[in-house]
Amino acid sequence: MSEQKELEVVEQEETKIEIRDPNSTDIMTVFRVIGKMKIRKELSSLGKRVAEMNRLYREGNKLNSKEEKTNTETAKARQLLDEAEEIQTELGMEWPFIILENIDKAEADVYKFLASLIGKSEKEYKQMHASNTLQIIFEIKNNEQWVKVFTDALKLLRK
User: Which residue intervals of the chain are DSSP H helices?
Assistant: First the structure.
């Protein structure tokens, strides 16, 4: 590979991807993709774990916020928060794999959705470097507004 081509690849990989904020149609897109992928049961299970994680965080933070707490309460708070963090780490690794393992069932919808997140056409998106897809997924995962969209969807699936 020529030196210029190597530089182009490196530059392309280092390009920062920014995603747009969620809009009113995104939740319906998420449900449509979930329906086509037939992963409602798996995501519902994740939703239950999200609820458990949130409960652990609330209880741990409540204990931590007490002005006067015993050593036992401090240890219990740390244990609750550690358990919550462990669940959060597991969830962060699981949901992308559930999606990727079933993506073939809704591939066109997923491409269209991911392309819309970065203001590209589906054709432009498909021509982008493969690492951009992972970067978009990481951006979604680290964006509070998008996390809320997916968390709300999981809450609805649990009901």
Answer: 3-14, 26-37, 40-65, 71-102, 107-117, 122-126, 131-141, 144-158
Mean of the per-residue pLDDT values for the chain?
86
Q: Within the chain, which residues score under 70 in pLDDT?
A: 1-14, 158-159
Q: What percent of the chain has pLDDT over 90?
A: 49
Q: Global pTM?
A: 0.67
Any idea what DSSP says for residue 106? Answer: S
- What's the Cα-to-Cα distance from 66 to each of 55, 62, 70, 138, rounded to whole Å? 17, 7, 10, 35
Instruction: Please list, in sequence order, all residues whose beta carbon lies within 8 angstroms of the beta carbon of residue 57, skipping any fewer than 6 positions away.
Output: 80, 81, 84
